[in-house]
Amino acid sequence: MKLLRLTATEAARMIGEGSLTATELTAAYLEQIEKHDGDVFAYLKVTPEVALRQAEAIDLLPAGERPPLAGLPLAVKDVLCTEGIETTCASRFLENYRPVYTATCVKQVLSAGAVMLGKTNMDEFAMGSSTENSAYGPTANPWDTGRVPGGSSGGSAAAVAAGEALWALGSATGGSIRQPAAFCGIVGLKPTYGAVSRYGLVAFASSFDQVGPITRNVMDAALLMRHLAGKDPLDSTSVEYPDEIKLPDDRDLTGVRIGVISEISGEGIDSGVRAVIDETMKKLEGAGASIAEASIPHAEYALPAYYILAPAEASANLARYDGVRYGLRAASAGGVTEMYEETRSLGFGDEVKRRIMLGTYALSSGYYEAYYDQAQKVRTLIIRDFESAFEDFDFLVSPTAPTTAFRLGEKTADPLTMYMSDICTIPVNLAGLPAISLPAGLSDGLPVGLQIIAPPFTATKLLQAAFSAEAAIGFDGLSPLLEGVEEQEKPGAS
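The structure assignment produced for this chain is given below.
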């Protein structure tokens, strides 16, 4: 039985009926991590003792008393606090930092029975599109270890694609769940802003950040999302989800109105990516959907607006890292000012420093009205553009990323080119909308993602449409590291 090929839904059924134990499944994933993570580097911290202890506790429960996610191995992005377990945000600033509490979303999933395998690599403080900004080294794409897995949730995406986790939690500020999911040929769901608690999520840009699932398929994303959504009294920006999130149950696209966003689906998109998306649209139309062109007129201003607003929020959020309260403190500094300067110089990487400076400049006297205030107006216009488009369409689509996974080091010297990697996803985050990335096919042997966008707080409808689109597309590709897994024997088998 190829345990690593099981989806979360299949594994949950087998554990529930007793044909598979949580310990067996967890041990299989830990073995895969030990075998391949030296090449992939998906994890900053693997927690085998924690995982096996949690799995063994699940196996001791009577079958009828096991929680819904019992024994399902999970990877957690290292931007989410975990009590007593290092949470570094891939930064030297928080090296060896152990939180005294666990993020609400992690606690919810663990309470539902999931087993935590470890903390995954990421771009430092979630600032990046390739996981090359990690202070501890880059993660590799399981489809081609000479290429990036995307970012900033690249470690979580790579872990799932490499068979080093059954599923994972990521976070998105400008596209950091969907873009790495697209690069790694898996599913990534960015929920509506406010649908999932941000308590315990180390802040990058508070009005953008949102936690979501990274999984092998849409059904698994729906299963995990059911245990993430909801009001948290510890997070004032979270809301009570208006309806119960239901698992998708049919594959029918008949009558569904889909709009292809012209501003982020044509010019600037790699020809191979565009060919895959065009073919995907034909498949969705063949499955009964009606396809037409849609417009988000102000989408062309989304990228510059985002790179004013998000750094502005980051400059305020990262002011707390001063060497006084927690984290790194420069030992050789003289006075307080020197200590601040040396500590922040040593602790932050180049990209984080760049965004702090951008944000501080945009908020400074004389420039606030010219930059920050104008960017907020653009954000409002983009929200209105989406509202108008949803009057004519049930869902909007585009490529998830303008290219397939690029080579490690290819864009590190050119920040503007790197920022363009999120050109398709950033408008959605500016508007706070839910969106999902599905693998749509391959271009030159590398995965291409399809982004499906929905109105706010319509997770059930979005997941149902994605479930149907997944069947119409018919992509079942696995990364070489997962494709090549051998038959695993259960412990004690002869």
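Interim note for the steering committee: Residues 368-389 form the longest helix (22 residues). The CA atoms of residues 183 and 404 lie 6 Å apart.
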